[in-house]
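2024-03-11 09:14:02 INFO receiving multi-entity request
2024-03-11 09:14:02 INFO entity count = four
2024-03-11 09:14:03 INFO echoing inputs for audit
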Amino acid sequence: MTEDTRKLLDGLGTTVPSVDYKRPTPNQVFEYIRDEIISMQLLPGQKISENTLAEKFSVSRTPIREALNRLSTLGFVEVRPQRGTFVTKLSMSFILEARFIRESLEVAVVNQLAENRVDSMAMECEKILADQAKAAKKKDALLFQQLDDRFHMTLADATGFKRVGGAIELEKAHMDRVRNLSLVELTGQYEHVLKQHHAILDAIMSGSPQQAVQAMRTHMRDVFNILKIAPVNHPEFFV
Amino acid sequence: MTEDTRKLLDGLGTTVPSVDYKRPTPNQVFEYIRDEIISMQLLPGQKISENTLAEKFSVSRTPIREALNRLSTLGFVEVRPQRGTFVTKLSMSFILEARFIRESLEVAVVNQLAENRVDSMAMECEKILADQAKAAKKKDALLFQQLDDRFHMTLADATGFKRVGGAIELEKAHMDRVRNLSLVELTGQYEHVLKQHHAILDAIMSGSPQQAVQAMRTHMRDVFNILKIAPVNHPEFFV
DNA sequence: ATTCCACAACTGGCCTACAAGTCCGTCCGG
DNA sequence: CCGGACGGACTTGTAGGCCAGTTGTGGAAT
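2024-03-11 09:21:47 INFO inference complete, emitting structure
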């Protein structure tokens, strides 16, 4: 595929996704674009064309629009009528709020889990953390982050609630956009993050809500502090 | 308007809403249906026809579908392909989760406000509570609830965050659906709720995070306990 | 009387065409 | 040379129709 063709695809990457007829088209488009935004393959401020996407997926604008509308309500894209649809720029206040919401929920989760332990959760978490230790050794950033996702999601799901995990994942996604601006710079943090994960899990399993809450709070704030540098290194992606 | 005509409108009420050309049509439809669902004018399990709505609003199905899709992601309606769109039935586990999420956020809000007081917020809250006292005296359920909304929203907005208020409002809306099943039965609770609102505000303004958090927790659980009776009185609306 | 099947009515998913607004380059007049 | 008006090439918004799948009904066969 030539460089010119890539431009025609509006910067949406070269791997053309094929639609699976068994799953709803809007879902597939939604997930595809969302992942491209989170992973910074679609850059903040970049224009997204409904027509281009429609050609790319070989569908009409209708399912594309449905996907973009959902991304819009979640804050990943901004639809400006008669002007275009754009990947939202990052902003510190937005990220700060994401941390606030996420911390509120994560703290509530570990508090509940420490009060009411779930053994199956502990087993799964420990396996995830073991894998994450391997990923840290191999400096596999992508894998490490996926396992980070799964760790927090496993905690949330252990409460038995169905939507909390999704809500946490959403706020985490907004924070991950910033994190993915400079993934390589974070390799030094792996051991630190891993230690905090263990501290959270240990506090939960020892049945100490206050300790678990404190460990999660510390974890959230440390993660956020790492992100604070991003606007300095990449001001063009911030409002 | 005759009873027959009402049936033709698919139970969506008799007041035909006129679209405001200045605002996006999907937004208006979204808000209209959402409010009808929250206020129990559209009952859980009831079928919603896209075509009927399109006629009712004198628009095509396109903006209607956009509104219904948004309502679907928020859990107010359920779209079953080739079968129909239905108002979601209530479920205790869903409401319990709504309380969990809402309590997490509200607690975090008052905690932050107690640590960092905002005087303008206090002024507005006190005015709201004064009005709410009047509404309680007049046993005006609708007004009381609207002011309840505004009280919690004012607290959330005082943090300076833009999305927290909306998130709280959403979970509150799901709880209000249950509450609106038996509004009249709650008149005895007005003074109790009002007292708790004052306790929350006082704790915030006295700069005591722990007290504010505890007051909000108590408030959330008391409100939830009121809702627990609903499935017994109205089992047909629950899954 | 009961079971099964075919058909008609209706649903949401998707497509195409058109409407309305924005942006930018070009051309004309000064 | 400069400035403003105009037009064309975009953008998203909306309308309306077709399609595939589901459902309920009524008639035929047992």
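2024-03-11 09:21:48 INFO post-check: The longest helix of chain A spans residues 92-115.
2024-03-11 09:21:48 INFO post-check: Residues 49-51, 61, 65, 79-85 of chain A lie near DNA strand D (CB under 10 Å from a C1').
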